[in-house]
Amino acid sequence: MDRSYLARQRPGFRYGKAYTMDEVQRAKLIGTQQRNGMYQVDYSLKKPQEPARTLTELVGQSFNGTYNRLFTLTLQAVDEDLDKYGNDIAKLKDSFHVPASAK
Question: Do the beta carbons of residue 51 and residue 79 sit within 8 Å?
Fold first, then answer.
């Protein structure tokens, strides 16, 4: 996801073009944690000509007796609207649960 390495290359080195940080997609890890038996990853993402956004990924695993199942939830909001939708995002995170594994 992070293409900021393009802007750190020598001018004209990558694809014959010198990139600036505003011309490349950038991702920054905000934090990680384990919550309710799942992993949570928070990061920011800035694409060219788009507003910056914050994403939260929840990842969990469950075993149904035959197969392992992977469950994911991705939540995102434009940084300008993060205060507006922060409570809704928190409610969604709390409502996401992975089914209990079979013995």
Answer: yes
pTM of the prediction?
0.77
**SS3 of residue 3 by DSSP:** coil
Return the higher-pLDDT residue of 16 and 76.
76
pLDDT value for 103? 76
Domain assignment present for residue 100? The answer is no
Q: What is the total count of domains within the chain?
A: 1
Residue 47: C-alpha distances to residues 1, 23, 60, 66, 80 (Å): 10, 8, 28, 41, 15
62 assigned to some structural domain? yes
Per residue in 49-88, pLDDT (tens digit) is: 899 999 999 999 999 989 999 999 999 999 999 999 999 9
For 50-57, the CB contacts below 8 A with 24+ separation are 51/78, 51/79, 51/80, 52/78, 52/79, 53/77, 53/78, 53/79, 54/30, 54/79, 54/82, 56/89, 56/93
